[in-house]
Write a structure and sequence with these properties.
Layout (H helix, E strand, L loop, with lengths): L52 H5 L2 H14 L10 H21 L8 E6 L5 E6 L2 H18 L6
Antiparallel strand pairs: 1-2
Helix pairs in contact: 2-4
């Protein structure tokens, strides 16, 4: 124990033994960044002879029912500051572009508004409030996926 050994900092990846004169580059052990992967949502694939789940989600009647549910929940406005009626008026003109983004898999939801809710023990609970547009899309997806994933729950 007369000699103290210091640990050397390790670089990311693992060293691969070299064969010959040229050294091989290190192989990374890190997982790829999922935000940079360009894969589809997988929802546009057809199921058992029917149309795709995404197409079923974006049907007019399903969207009407979703808007009805979102309206009944009477939630607050998200980061865009638009309530349910304002969003409904906005979607009249903007829905075709949003629909196209959803079908291509390039739609990105808006940031969530953060609100602190007081708790009985004098603490605070964080609450995230999505925009009405994002809640509409979430509800429309739920209405299509819920019967497939848990048929015992009916809307």
């Amino acid at each position: 124990m007369s000699k103290v050994m210091r640990q050397m900092p390790v670089r990311a990846g693992r060293a691969v033994p070299a064969r010959g004169e040229a050294a091989r580059p290190s192989i990374s052990d890190e997982t790829p960044d999922p935000r940079r992967e360009r894969q589809g949502t997988g929802l546009a694939k057809p199921i058992a002879g029917t149309g795709g789940l995404l197409e079923a989600t974006l049907e007019r009647e399903n969207l009407r029912q979703a808007l009805k549910r979102v309206r009944a929940n009477r939630g607050s406005a998200g980061v865009d500051g638009l309530d349910i009626d304002q969003t409904a008026r906005k979607l009249v003109t903007e829905w075709p572009a949003i629909r196209e983004q959803l079908l291509r898999g390039t739609y990105r939801p808006a940031p969530v508004r953060r609100v602190l809710i007081p708790k009985p023990d004098r603490g605070q609970r964080k609450l995230g409030i999505p925009t009405v547009t994002d809640r509409l899309i979430q509800q429309a997806l739920l209405q299509v996926l819920q019967p497939l994933l848990d048929p015992s729950l009916i809307f």
